[in-house]
Amino acid sequence: MMNNDLLNELKQRQKRILENLGTDLLILPAGAPPTGVSLFLQDDDFHYLTGFPEEGAIAVFDPTRDSENVALFVKEKDRQEEVWQGFTIGTRKARERFPADKVYNVKSLESTLKDRLKGRTVYYKAIQNQRQGETLEKLLEQEGVVPRKSGGPFDELLEMRVIKSAYELEQMRRAIEITGEAHHACMRAGKTAQFEYELEAEFEYACKTRGVRHFAFGSIVAAGAHATCQHYVENNGPVGPDDLVLIDAGAKWNNYCADITRTFPASGKFTAMQRDLYEIVLASQKAGVEAVAPGISFFELHNVAARVFADGLKSLKILHGSTDGIIEKNAYRDFWPGALCHSLGLYVHDVMPQAFRGADAERKLEPGMVVTVEPGFYSQDFNHQIPEAFKYIGIRIEDDVLVTEDGHENLSAAIAKEVADVEAMVQSGLQ
User: How far apart are CA 126 and CA 111, in angstroms?
Assistant: First the structure.
């Protein structure tokens, strides 16, 4: 059965959407079925408003129907289908377990909805390969309805998801805790792993033995020069004894994501040059974390970390000139081309209103938001202006940070990132 706190929270979310709709109609499809024989993961918005975990479902939000504001259309139990596709919740159990005023067999979708569409503004975004999409689109066309794919309840959903509730934070804390344990397992395996995929397996094993069924994204396990590609996912290269290993990976827990990056020396000991670069990225990252607070924009936060990063590269003679000039000309972006932060939640790069984005962002961070803080150093062959010793090195350090009323809480602070702690964790793998 669904937790009462979650049930009440889902009802409150539905109430807010219904109030936003006025007299309009929102039709929300569940996620598309998986390809082949594989595990299904529910669409984020559908999960957020219904908690219903199966594909092939439709939720209809209609504020004009007093006794049926929220209708859920689900697959009925079918013994023959269950032989092949696994067990189905069905209409009876869906009525008992999920917050809907009425639960229908999804086969009655067309006949039930037909009379509700005339003269209505309908919000609906198709999901590719969703089973009921073709039926819905045909019905809308027959009734002369051109659905709206943006604005209204979609904007409201976006605003709602930006700020995390106590329940959501509880799920994220667990996802982050498990992810941290998995990162530590990879560090301990660093001295014996010969290939990146061994560490990928180590990460997944540590997560799955703790109950994880889904991951936030495809794990990045990059040794040596592979770490200079920010989204390297092949994970099939060798792990050299003198390599730095960058792992960017995260578990999901009840659909909520963790996103953590750690970089460690496979040998268990940073070389002097590796340590110098690592300390620069770490100082930049810690400055970014410390600056997280209500009232600062993503752009301002990025520049706090970028200044520390630029000063560090100046100290190694990799960058030259004034820090202000380096920041103004984006000269440091040859080595750190990405952004410092993104929102985190049901999706790894979670929803974020446009007003938060860009150099002229109007919106500032607000309590209840969870953001990543992840500077990095990436030096490839095209970085001609630096000594050869600094080339082909990738370092990233990433934490997940909650914006609080008076500052921030680093949700992943327990995961080793200080030089001594990282080295000790790697070396403990052989003890």
Answer: 19
Q: Which residues pair with 102 in a beta bridge?
A: 71
Return the pLDDT at 427: 96
* SS3 (DSSP) at 205: helix
Cα–Cα distances (Å) from 60 to 14, 126, 397, in that order, read 11, 14, 43
Q: What is the pLDDT of residue 402?
A: 98
Q: What is the mean pLDDT of residues 235-239?
A: 98
Q: Which amino acid is at 92?
A: R
For residue 14 the two structure tokens come to 């539905």
Mean pLDDT over 49-72 rounds to: 95
Q: Count other Cβ atoms within 10 Å, centred on residue 414.
A: 11
Task: Please count the residues of the chain.
Answer: 431
Confidence grade of residue 386 (pLDDT, cut at 50, 70, 90): confident
Q: How far is CA 1 from CA 7, 402, 428, in A?
A: 10, 29, 42
Structure tokens at 171: 């799920």
| CA gap 35, 84 in Å, rounded | 14
87-127 pLDDT, tens digit per residue, is 899 999 999 999 999 999 999 999 999 989 988 999 999 88
Q: What are phi and psi of 212, to 5 degrees?
A: -75, 135
> In degrees rounded to 5, what are phi and psi of residue 183?
-60, -45
Q: What residues have CB less than 8 Å from 14, skipping those under 6 apart?
A: 49, 61, 69, 70, 99
Mean pLDDT computed over 16-34? 95
Mean pLDDT across 266-276: 96
CA-closest candidate to residue 14, choices 172, 157, 163:
157
d(CA 397, CA 281): 7
> H helices of 341-418, where?
none
DSSP letter assigned to residue 228: G
Contacts of 23 (CB under 8 A, 6+ apart): 63, 64, 120, 121
Mean pLDDT of 272-300: 97
* Terminal C-alpha separation, the chain: 44
